[in-house]
Amino acid sequence: QVQLVESGGGVVQPARSLRLSCAASGFTFNKYAMHWVRQAPGKGPEWVGVVSYDGNIQYYRDSLKGRFTISRDNSKNTLYLQMNSLRGEDTAMYYCARQGETTSEYFDFWGQGSLVTVSS
Amino acid sequence: EIVMTQSPATLSVSPGERATLSCRASQNVSGDLAWYQQKPGQAPRLLIHGVSATATGIPARFSGSGSGTEFTLTISSLQSEDFATYFCQQYYYWPLTFGGGTKVEIK
């Protein structure tokens, strides 16, 4: 069955960096675009960005461009989110999610999430 | 950015009753609308995509309808496991955006 397992979260000081990983199994990873979605406590989800199936194309929400980078290693079936210059408002649960169809950006499977807390 | 507005914020329903949740988009999102269910401490789970296509393994009591800017998720007869928060998401425009959610609670 499809499994997505995030890791790498924790408490980090403002302006520091953190890298999240998402290990995928149960499907052909290199055939799917993959997304990161975050959710602050008590809020609705917020889309962070996407990487194409081959890793060549990335899109981000405008407010995160330049600070967050999404990449993937298809040989390791792993998705990454590099977060730099972290701020308090980046505190959230971060989910990796599989895109449901090639041209439809809904999410058919989600990981359990990795909590990132930005605090001094 | 497309703003997705869900109503009501909280819906109190008795088990066995019908629940109707609304989602409004600030612009026409055509048929690119999905619904998710989220329980406390869990990740969202896909219920519906393409406005009305039920995801694999989702019970038939969940149905979606609508077009353009107005969408509805209907749960025909609420079961105990359906008490949760529901989010809509549009994927017609970048950035992808979600609504703020409707919490369905036991009346």
The rounded distance between the terminal residues' Cα atoms of chain A is: 40 Å
Q: What does the radius of gyration of chain A come to?
A: 13 Å
Structure class of chain A: mainly beta
Globally, the shape of chain A reads: globular
Low-confidence stretches of chain A: none
Major beta-sheet overview of chain B: 7 strands, mixed
Query: Helix and strand succession of chain A?
Result: EEEEEEEEEEE
Count of alpha and pi helical runs of chain A: 0
How would you describe the oligomerization state of the chains in this entry?
heterodimer
Give me the strand/helix succession of chain B. EEEEEEEEEEE
Please tell me about this protein's structure.
The complex is a heterodimer of chains A (120) and B (107). By secondary structure, chain A is an all-beta fold. Chain A has strands spanning 3-7, 10-12, 18-25, 34-39, 46-51, 58-60, 68-73, 78-83, 92-101, 104-110, 114-118. In chain A, strands 2, 4, 5, 6, 9, 10 and 11 form a seven-stranded mixed β-sheet that branches. In chain A, strand 7 (68-73) and strand 8 form a beta hairpin. Chain A starts with a strand and ends with a strand. The relative contact order of chain A is 0.31. Chain B is mostly beta strands. Chain B is built from no helices and eleven strands. Chain B has strands spanning 4-7, 10-13, 19-25, 33-38, 45-49, 53-54, 62-67, 70-75, 85-90, 97-98, 102-106. In chain B, the strands form two sheets. In chain B, strands 2, 4, 5, 6, 9, 10 and 11 form a seven-stranded mixed β-sheet that branches. In chain B, a hairpin with a 3-residue loop joins strand 5 (45-49) and strand 6 (53-54). The chains are: A mainly beta (120), B mainly beta (107). Chain A binds chain B through residues 35, 43-47, 59, 61-62, 95, 100, 104-113, and chain B through 32, 34, 36, 42-46, 49-50, 55, 87, 89, 91, 94-101.
